[in-house]
Amino acid sequence: MTWSDETDRFVGSWEDGIGFYVYPTQRFKTVTIYAAWIRDLSPSDRALGALLPAVLKRGTQRWPNRVLMEQQLESLYGANFRADVGKLGDKQLLSFHVSVVNGQFLPGRPDTVGAALDFLTEVLERPQLVGGTFPQDVVEQEKTLVKRQISALINDKGQYAFSRLIELVADGQRFGLKKLGTAEEVDRVTSPALVDFLGQVRDESPFVFVVVGDVDPNAIRNHVAKRWSGAKKPLTTIEPYQGKHQNQTVIESQDVRQGKLNLAYRTGLTGKDAHYPALVMYSGILGAFSHSKLFINVREKASLAYYAYSRIDPALALMIIGAGIEFQDYEAARGIIEEQVEAMRQGRISDEEMSFTLKAYINDILSEEDNPGQLIGRQLEHLLIGGGLSGPALIEALQAVSKDDVVQVAQQVELDTVYFLTAEGDGQHGA
Amino acid sequence: MGRNQTMWEQLGELPVRETLDSGLEIVVLPKPGLKKTYATYATHYGSIDSHFTRPDTGEKVDVPDGIAHFLEHKMYEKPEGRDVFERFAELGAYTNAYTEYTSTTFLFSATSEIEACLDTLMRLVEEPHFTPENVEKEKGIIEQEIRMYLDMPGDRVRSNLMHALYQKNPVRLDIAGSVESIRTITPDNLYVCYNTFYHPSNMVMFVAGDVETARIIDYVANVEKARHLKPSGRIGRIFPEEPHDVAQKRIEQVMPVSAPLWLMGYKDQKVGFTGVDLLRHDMIRGMMWSLLLGPASKLYNDLYQSGLISERFYAHYTSAATYGLSMLGGETPDPAKLEAVLLERLPHEPFKREDLERLQKKEIGEFVSLFENLEDLAYAFNAFHFRGIDLALIPELLHQITVDDLEKARQEHLKESTRAVSVILPPREGGAAHAAHSH
Prior knowledge:
- The complex is a heterodimer.
- Chain A contains 15 helices and eleven strands.
- Chain A is an alpha+beta fold.
- Chain A folds into two domains: 11-227, CATH 3.30.830.10; 248-427, Cytochrome Bc1 Complex, Chain A, domain 1 (2-Layer Sandwich), CATH 3.30.830.
- A six-stranded mixed β-sheet of chain A has the order 1-2-6-3-5-4, sandwiched between helices. A five-stranded mixed β-sheet of chain A has the order 7-11-8-10-9, sandwiched between helices.
- In chain A, helix 1 packs across helix 4 (136-151), helix 1 packs across helix 7 and helix 9 (276-288) crosses helix 15.
- Chain B is an alpha+beta fold.
- Chain B has two domains: 2-237, Cytochrome Bc1 Complex, Chain A, domain 1; 250-425, CATH 3.30.830.10.
- Helices cover 41% and strands 18% of the residues of chain B.
- In chain B, helix 2 packs across helix 8 (187-197) and helix 4 runs parallel beside helix 9 (213-225).
- The radius of gyration of chain B is 23 Å and the shape is globular.
- Chains A and B meet through helix 2, strand 5, helix 4, strand 7 and helix 10 of A and helix 3, helix 5, helix 11, helix 13 and strand 15 of B.
């Protein structure tokens, strides 16, 4: 069960529109299986994309309703199953995820992994159709739930402010589109349209199948090859952000108790760029950790916020800074944040900041190897960016980054858009 | 964990436990092959412990609400002006801490320099440094943390429900306290709480990772030895008698949410268990909810199909020595109808043996997978430890629970007089206009 360079890495390939990757480690007690169809986000069919996973999880030919499906999952020692829609950059991912305890740790050593594979295959391949379409009531129920999810975005203020910022930055580009679509788009979805869409997705959409856990890669490969074959559209990578707003600032108000300040910066670098590791170091020194400039200056020194962070989007070539602040501190907090970005530009970076940041990343990168979900996420990211480093290779690249490299990157990071969510009326002092 | 050795061997897990002279308990779980080592140092002291008698003087003490959480924040500050975040950063480790009703936990996660990290974790917890200035400064940060929670509908709906359910027990108050209560905190308050509750005999350390157990234990034992501490006297925790009835039947609050958020609670009158009895009590009530309202239940499915609940609906039971309660709810378009259907059907849904057997399988699976995620495992271990429960008893107890146990729990627990409801409502139409302007 110890670490092995042989099994503790992804093996697999992308062929004819199908990606197949296995990380056959023996270090985990569970096996995680992830499958997804990858689509370009588009207003014309994103609502169909949002609904398809939702209706597929409602019944299969073998387990025709959700009670029977849930009971099957319970019988598999509480297998965890999710079918949902995800978004990475300008891609919409119709995602299916099963994780199950490996039978070798259970009484009687049942073949839970085989059963979990069968379950997932059944969901993808043999949906419960009535008269050739999804049951009308099921489709209507799921439409109602998706519409509620759309309007629920407003409930999480941090997430809401973040997504408003991305929308403002995108300004019509596809990565600004919401993965669920609009209520009107969802309303227009019909059961026959979903069946047609499923056919189209199966025929064209790039399909990826990833497994992490103690399995035989060849057995999985055979399982996949037998059921899913190629001749699909090739996988295209995510289009990075190209626009150029000049310090666009948007302030909106709601009935909130805390202001949410978010800033978007153009970095000009995606995960596959040679200078990307320098950008990673840049963001780490600026705001990824509790020793970073933003946390120290906005929270610890000025006591203006409970959180203040920066993070980079490796696909879109963006960096986002966020902080939760008092309404009247908008100018002060924004001032301190921009001062930190300027300090980076001017190379005011200590040796300690370089070394703390490097060590923190090494810790994060190595820790990823203990988390099946993170391993799958990073594999997907590489596929959709069209490259990039991870694991030991990324560590090596970060170690090679010099302070000059960081400063060089700092000089190409430019403020694009600022978004501030503040209180209505009386709560709003001087913002 | 001695008498459950077989169970651990079956699982392939071999934890080692030791009690040091100072009274500190340490448990080390070797996880060969994992990159990460995860360690927690936790005290049996949480937000509800604001009234107590000091073990040294016997004096009765009342401290401001929210002080346990404040203390957790302040432990990161040290006299040399370099805080503990920095020291962990130097070691390339991640650190965090959290405060709950009955415990406070400090942690690190690291992939190298484990002994230096352990040393830093111990200094973090063992060297308090509170000054009027650094206490004052923290108030601004914690105020922002509290305000962040005030904007979280899920947090508010739970907070209001606790307020409705409990008349006296301090679980009715928010863990972080209020903006007003924390303003009254002083360094003296903090030292009294620290000296009472951060004594090693009131604490436990848990370490899991690819480590040598003996080495870790020796290392910690050596550091502890230098402190020359002996187990402290008993801490008198003072809890008011909780009346039978709820404080309020219903609390409603308007927030900018898209749909009503509804949560119903039942206050458990049967409290005061510890150890195996508490575990059994807890498991029976938890399994009762899984059968009544888990994702595989008929009732859940009917509610889902009628559009009254979404997949985020939940129903569970939680307890400690002085309180126990059930919470069930989620987002719903029609709180009145959801409540009516539940009140009508909850007393009559049949408990079936085949459903219980399937649930037992699920619970076993979840127990095994707990050992894969060190964060979840440490969390569960600490929570159980402070309630006097050995985690390893779960599989054995699980199979002793019968349909009759669940039926009896339902009769005892689902009483109208102990039931309360909390609802977050969206603003009325027209009241939610969002002004927008650019400059």
